[in-house]
Write a structure and sequence with these properties.
The protein is mostly helical and about 80 residues long. It has 4 helices and no strands. The termini are far apart.
């Protein structure tokens, strides 16, 4: 199995890595490996499973339509 060494990791990024590793009950070494696997070895999903996820999402947001005025207000919020 190959090995890799990361050098010159910014302190703030390393702290985020440590926090993520702790939150996910992984070691600081395992956390970036997990991230790499998720990026480069994505889990294939069947068309049926994807359709089911879309259906579930549609059901969760059903009836929660925003009016044009609400959308405009949200876009303009915080603008000077």
């Amino acid at each position: 199995m190959a090995s890799i060494t990361f050098k010159n990791i910014p302190d703030d990024l390393y702290e985020q890595l440590k926090k993520a590793a702790s939150a996910n009950h992984r070691s600081v070494n395992s956390e970036p490996l997990y991230c790499l696997e998720r990026t480069y070895k994505p889990t294939p999903i069947s068309a049926a499973a994807l359709a089911q996820k879309a259906s579930d999402l549609r059901r969760r947001v059903a009836g929660k339509r925003l009016s044009a005025a609400e959308i405009t207000a949200a876009k303009n919020e915080g603008r000077a």
